[in-house]
Amino acid sequence: MTWESDGETVPTQRPLRSIARARRMRLVVTAGAQAGVEMTSDERVVVIGRGPEAQLRLDDPSASRFHCELSLSERGVLLRDLRSRNGTFFAGARVREAELPLPCSFSIGASVIQVSDAGAGDVIAAAPSRFGALLGQSAAMRAVFAALERLAKTELSLLIEGPTGTGKELAARAVHEHSGSASGPFVVVDCAAIPASLAESVLFGHERGSFTGAHAAQAGAFESAHKGTVFLDEIGELPAELQPKLLRVLERREVVRVGSHAPRPVTVRVLSATWRDLRAMVNDGRFREDLYYRLAHARVVLPALSERSEDVPLLVQRMLDERPAGAIGARAIAQDALDALANRAYLGNVRELRATVERAAALAQGAIITTRDLDGEQLIARGAQRPRAPQESAPIDAFKDAKRSVIDQFEREYLARLVERCGDNLSLAARSAGLERHSLRELLRRHGLRAE
C-alpha cells in the first residue's frame, strides 16, 4: 500500500496483517521525448500529466498539468481526459471518456503511451475493518483506512475526494480524532452553503461594524479551529474571489478579520473534501493551481459503494445495531433479504443504503426484515418522492443533510428522465437541459449515470 504526499510515493512502515490481490496496469511511453519510460501501478487510478502529482509525468509541452487518468475496468481500461488543453487521442480521435480494450495505445501531443494488464499483485490492506465511524472489510476500504491512519499522524493538508454519500466528512472526523490535535476543536465549513457575501466573514471572522448586521466582533472558522482542525467541505464550491485569500491564510498561517488590518496567527490542520474533480477545474482555470497544491499535500479517494459491494452486509448490520433502543421495527435481517440489498445499485452510496435500511426496518412486518419487506420499502420509497406534509413526530435532519438529500434526489430523478429521453446522445441531452457537455458529464458521473 502506498499513499501520495507532495508528489512522492511513501511506503507504509507499520506491519499489517492481511494481504489482498489486485490487478495492476503497465504503462510504457513508446514515442516522444520520454520514450522508453515505463511504470507498473497497483493504484486504482493513475494520473498522467506535467504536474508534480501525476504518477506518470510527461515532459511534453502539449500535456496539461493534470491531463488524463486511467483506471482498470472489467473490459479493459477507462481513459478519462481531465479537460486538458490539447486533448487526449485514441485511434486519431479526441477522447473525453472511453473504455478501451487492453493492450491499447493513446497519444498526448507527441507522446504515445501504451497500456497493458500487468496481472495481479499483492496490495497490503490494513487489518482493522473500521477507522473512526467508517466501516469496511473490502480491500479498497482497508487500503483507505491504512492511508488515513498514517496521514492522521502527520500535519499534512489532506484532500478527501469521492462521490456523494461515501462518507467524506466521517473520514475527516476520523483523521482529526486520530491526530495529535484530537483534543482541539473540529470546525466544519460547508463551502456550498455559504452565501458569497458572507464567505470571507465565515472563514476569517469580522470586526464590529465592518458591514451591515455586524453588531459584534466574531471569530471565523480558522480562529475557532486554533490548535485543532478546520474541515472545508465541498471545497470545489468556494467562490473564485475567495480562493486567493484562502491561499494567503494557508501560506502565512494568519488571518485578517473583515474590517481589520491586524493579522492574527492561527495553528490549524486543514482538511478538505469535494465530489468535484479539482484537477479538471485547475485545467479549466476555475480553481487556482497553487491553492490546489496547498490543500492536497496528500489526497485520498473514497470508493463508491458499487466498488465495494462486499461491504454492504457489514454496513447493513451496523445500521440495524445502531437503531435507537425505543425505535419501532426490525433489528435483524434475513440472509436472502441481505443478499438482495447487496445486489442493488445505490446512486447515493452509503447515505442511500442507510435510508433504505431505515425504511425497511421501520416498515418490517416482524422482528426480521424479509424480501417481502424490501418490496414494500421500494414502493414506499417511490411514493416518498411525491411531496407530503411533514409529521410532527418525524425526526428532523440537520439542515445541511436534509438540503443535500433533497438536491441529490432531484438531480438523480431529473438526470434519469433526461438520459431515458435522449439516450446515448450527450450533446442532445446537454442542449435539452441547458447545460454545458462537461457539466452534464460531471453530474452523470456523480450519480452513476454514465453517458458512454
Residue-averaged pLDDT: 83
Helix/strand structural class: alpha/beta
Number of strands: 24
Which strand-content bin applies to the residues? 25-35%
Ranges where pLDDT stays below 50 over 5 or more residues in a row are 1-21, 385-389
Task: Tell me, briefly, the overall form.
Answer: globular
Helix fraction bin? 25-40%
| Radius of gyration, whole Å | 23 Å
Task: Give the strand line-up of the largest sheet.
Answer: 6-5-7-8-11
* H/I helix tally: 14
* Main sheet makeup: 5 strands, mixed
Distance between the termini: 32 Å
Q: What does this protein look like?
A:
Helix 8 (312-321) packs across helix 10. This protein is an alpha/beta fold and 452 residues long. Helices cover 32% and strands 25% of the residues. The strands form eight sheets. The protein has a five-stranded mixed β-sheet with strand order 6-5-7-8-11, with no helix packed on it. Strands 17-18-21-16-22 form a five-stranded parallel β-sheet. Mean pLDDT is 83; it is low at 1-21 and 385-389. The radius of gyration is 23 Å and the shape is globular. Strand 19 and strand 20 (263-265) form a beta hairpin.
